[in-house]
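Annotators were shown the component list below and the corresponding predicted structure, then asked to write short factual statements about the assembly.
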Amino acid sequence: MTARRKYRRGARNKLPGPVLPPPGTEWGPAMRALPSDRHRQFVISTFEVKPGYGANIRAAKLACFGTSTTTPDSWKVIASILAHDDKIQEAIYEESQRRLKATAPRAVAAAARLIEDPDHKDHARAIGMILDRVHPVQTTHTVNINHRKTVVVTTAEVLDKINELARRAGIAPDAMPPPMIDVTPTDKTT
Amino acid sequence: MTTNKNLAAMTREQHGAWLDSLSDTDLVICHVPVGYLYTTLVISLLKRTLLVCPMDTGERLEILEQLNGLATGPISPIALSLIAPMCDTAYRMVEAACQLDPPDEYPYPEHDPDALNRTCPGRKSFAMLTSWEVFGHLRRLNPSIDEALLLCFSRGVLPRTRAN
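Structure shown to annotators:
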């Protein structure tokens, strides 16, 4: 049986040009591992489209997937396949890391402005946040491992119990030798 | 004195005649389950240990608790207090019997209810010490064992075959 020929009514969408990394940089390993520029563009588009319902479809359209006559149901499928692809998810994670690191200086600057504004409602919170990172609270864990043989402390109560048990067993308490103080084992053969 | 060998060689009729020839005390003790006979020996041995061996308070307390724990079932606390400590001769007999047990015998063998030859620890010494001949020697060395066993087992124990 011959394979069913894929029937495409419209013209396949094409990217206007190659998808390049920002000037002076290179793609990371996950982006390089993607099969084509359209996939890389899809990853970049997921950060640029308006978030919400249909965001993956908008990213897929920006990446020039599909054709001019692709139906909405087909777009749903295309977007779902792309969004759930393992390689694309790794590339999204990699790109997220890059963008977060790029945003860090602005976050630090905003925190500094927050510190300088004592009237801001989160002023104290910002101070605590920064101090926790600069001078973290030190905790000390003390672990004591004591390997001790269980020793019965010779108290009056214990001696009374021993005497009582001996009397019940028909043994005169005075007839028993005095208890040893040194717990060094001796020859126990009787 | 009837030996273990003689007893093993008796026919059923000879065994019945032998039972009829026993005194009341011997007859009672003959019908006591061997486990309780062994318990009386253990009580006697533990009392000897307490009186002879120097030990620390913890060990003494533990042994006393074990000793008092033996007063269960038909062995009453009064019987427990009646039994005298084991003498030196009896102790040497027990020591000799314990040499029958394998030295490397695992004290807690795996329980196998279907095993025909169960190897519970101390089985050989137990059989030797509770045999009629050996236990008879131990009774003569420690008459308090007779008193204790009669106190616990003498009520209505006499067999029906005995001619009164």
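Statements collected:
1. Chain B is about 60% helix and 0% strand.
2. Residues 160-164 of chain B have pLDDT under 50 and may be disordered.
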